[in-house]
């Protein structure tokens, strides 16, 4: 690829973009009625799943310090031992919580999930299905304010405190109006582009040389 051929290719790409903007995208118009109708016709696509808000204390199988300077082989050899130490640690934390310790303060002090630890373990609202199944299952058995037993996942050990739940609901039209409009704009643009290209092919005098 030479500099001259690259310049020519870039010029062609630019001209194509200008052509599409002028002949296709510039003529696409999505009316409010179309957006509203699309929302009405696709209500099943806009159903928000059940959600919950919890506080979270996370103790990984291996801390960051353990991972530094440790080879993959060494880590595998010590995996069970390190995981058991983490389990002992999380059991101690749970015992303090059961004895009345403040969950938010314990999260700030012990949780290895730094982002939520700074907020007292608060994960804000999370839709079911985002986290591993054991966490979703544990939350479904909790009442507001209750603290879970220790939950083990592939990442480590978790303790949760349920703050709030939201039932599955239909996402409001106003929340989706802009994104639906963009979706319809892109779709209409692609359809119009294909029609335009097909028309060009019909009118073009093409000679195959190979």
SS-based class: alpha+beta
Report the portion of residues in β strands. Answer: 15-25%
What is the CA-atom radius of gyration, in angstroms? 28 Å
Shape: elongated
Helical residue percent? 40-55%
What's the β-strand tally? 6
Largest sheet: 4 strands, antiparallel
Mean pLDDT: 88
Our count of helices gives: 8
Strand order of the largest sheet: 3-2-5-4
Instruction: List low-confidence stretches.
Output: none
Distance between the termini: 23 Å
Order of helices and strands: HHEEHHHHEHEEEH
Secondary structure layout plus pairing:
Layout: H1 3-23, H2 32-41, E1 47-48, E2 51-60, H3 64-67, H4 72-98, H5 103-110, H6 114-117, E3 122-127, H7 133-140, E4 151-152, E5 156-166, E6 169-170, H8 173-203
Antiparallel strand pairs: 1-6, 2-3, 2-5, 4-5
Helix pairs in contact: 2-8
